[in-house]
UniProtKB/TrEMBL annotation:
Residues 91-152 form the DPH-type MB domain. This is Diphthamide biosynthesis protein 4. The keyword Zinc applies. The keyword Secreted does not apply. It comes from the Eukaryota. Keywords: Iron, Metal-binding, Zinc. PROSITE patterns: DNAJ_2, DPH_MB. PANTHER family: DNAJ HOMOLOG SUBFAMILY C MEMBER 24.
Length: 157
């Protein structure tokens, strides 16, 4: 599992607690600097052919970073993925709340871990994050595995 995904915050030169306004203004600033059409007229003829492909790639990366970070839902997903990577929990599974049950502990939902223990998330935590975040990383209390609980998976009507 390689996590060679670019850091979108670094690309946009913002901190990961940046406000949507900061993200937006940095995006516009960088996009202006790196726009593929930029520099063709200003830097004279000849430079465009060699410089353009590089600028293109950088510009696309900025576009991609902005597309992810400008949207609250995709930004949260990205943050959750990054957090999971940084803590280096091996993700055992992607599950929805419907895959879990409250047999182990009625105060929340459990999902069996391969180590014999369970991934457990309390009902209070579920209530508070359900509306805020589309997914949650739930680590096993006994081993280093974690499951990613996704709330936005289609559920039964
Ligand atoms: Zn475990």
């Amino acid at each position: 599992m390689s996590s060679s995904r670019p850091n979108y915050y670094e690309i946009l030169e913002v901190s990961n607690s940046a406000t949507p306004e900061e993200i937006k203004s940095n995006y516009y600033r960088l996009a202006k600097l790196l726009h593929p059409d930029k520099g063709r007229g200003e830097n004279g003829v000849g430079t465009a052919d060699t410089a353009a492909p590089k600028a293109d790639a950088a510009f696309q990366l900025i576009e991609e970073a902005y597309r992810i970070l400008a949207n609250m839902a995709s930004r949260k997903l990205y943050d959750a993925d990054e957090a999971a990577c940084q803590k280096s929990f091996p993700i055992a599974a992607y599950i929805s709340p419907n895959d879990m049950d409250s047999i182990e502990d009625p105060r929340g939902l459990s999902y069996p871990c391969r180590c014999g223990d369970v991934f457990f998330v309390g009902q209070d935590k579920l209530d508070s994050s359900n509306s805020k975040s589309p997914e949650m990383v739930v680590p096993c209390s006994s081993c280093s595995f974690a499951v990613v609980l996704r709330f936005n998976l289609p559920s039964e009507e």
